[in-house]
Amino acid sequence: MTAVLEAQALGKKYGRHWALRECTIDIPAGHVVGLVGPNGAGKTTLLKLAGGQLEPTAGEITVLGGRPGGTPAQLARVGFVAQETPVYAALTIADHLRLGARLNPRWDATMAEDRIARLGLAPKHRVGKLSGGQRAQLALTLGLAKRPELLILDEPVASLDPLARREFLQGLMEATAEHEFSVVLSSHLVSDLERVCDYLIVLIDSRVQVAGEVDRLLATHHRLTGPRLDPDRLPADQHVISAGHTDRQSTLVVHTDSPIHDPAWTVTQLSLEDLVLAYMEQRAAENRRVALEVQR
Description:
Blueprint: E1 3-14, E2 17-28, E3 32-36, H1 43-50, E4 58-63, H2 72-76, E5 78-81, H3 93-103, H4 109-118, H5 132-145, E6 150-154, H6 162-179, E7 182-186, H7 190-196, E8 199-204, E9 207-213, H8 214-220, E10 221-227, E11 239-245, E12 249-255, E13 266-269, H9 272-295
Parallel strand pairs: 3-7, 3-8, 5-6, 6-7
Antiparallel strand pairs: 1-2, 1-4, 8-9, 10-12, 10-13, 11-12
């Protein structure tokens, strides 16, 4: 499968602090990819490296087969919408569209103007007077009208109310269906990713914990509930992601490609949020074990 973003041992350091370190990742083309992980996982740094806004300290990264931001032509192929939806408060919507046309050789003026009209926004309005949701929609319009092959969205709806989030994501879904470009969307709101993403990557401590098509991931991860059991006694093809125990009962999240027929277990399916939390809990437990070993 063709990759829109590939990184090998990628790292970014600020002074003595590594914001991203030894990150190896392969993001496929033709998907709306959800990138999720805890604060400090390196998601924003990775996306800014992909957008050409930062230069790596170590390792390699390619986007659409080229160096991020290496040439004007390469920059034109990638759209970027940041968490703060950067727009200029003193300028009007029309000013933003004119600026977009001057800066982007693939600019689609008709798309931009039609989308602004459908949103009910007046071109003469100053952006500083718009609501947060309207500013986010303007930023998305600027990203879409660039006609990118890859659109990167870094927490674009984090500060929006539920209705504004829904409208933003609906606009994104409509655009991807109509224009068929790749998307990488970072968010802490897994419920939003569940609505729009067909591919998921969980990034924790700069490492990919799991990656794959959402339908496939949900089909191969299960919650098992039954009598207390040492997870080491499970069949070898059932990989334990997280485990919880009481005196009498065990609750496990396992990854397996095989059907589970053991009558001792009650098997239930996971939501996408359940799956993400299981991997985050696994990593947190590993970090606690390492910390205890160091203390000893």
